[in-house]
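User: quick one, fold this
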Amino acid sequence: MTAVNIVCVGKLKEAYWRDACAEYSKRLSAYCRFSVAELAEARLGQNPSQGEIAAALAAEAKSIAPYLGAKSALNIALCVEGIQISSEDLAGRISDGAVSGISTVNFFIGSSFGLDPGVKSACDLRLSLSKMTLPHQLARVVLCEQIYRAFTIIAGGKYHK
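Assistant:
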């Protein structure tokens, strides 16, 4: 069974976001080993300089690094410069990965300043959920839903129409 991890910087603050993610986690348990790792966000002041932002992203990258090391993993960075793909394409990438020996799919969501360039370059795919800007909490819920949708597509379920 494929392991799917969402590795994100920061926590879901509101209960309704946590509840939504928990619902998709429960649904996904039929298809994969699903987990969410919430990593500490680097603290920055009100108006951080570019250097302070770069240092914060580098510190966050150190906590992300252990999730990037597996050779049998498909690593996907969520970032604004990423490509947009269809739900069917995401399902195909997950399915093709499993057929070719990929046992883990990791999705990385950065802090409000994004992901360190080194994390993005270490990933196999840079993905954008939308051209519109989404709050990180909502992006996580949308990602959970799309992962669930991908697995129902793979399984030939009725959820995806």
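User: anything notable?
Assistant: The beta strands are 3-9, 33-39, 73-83, 104-109, 125-127.
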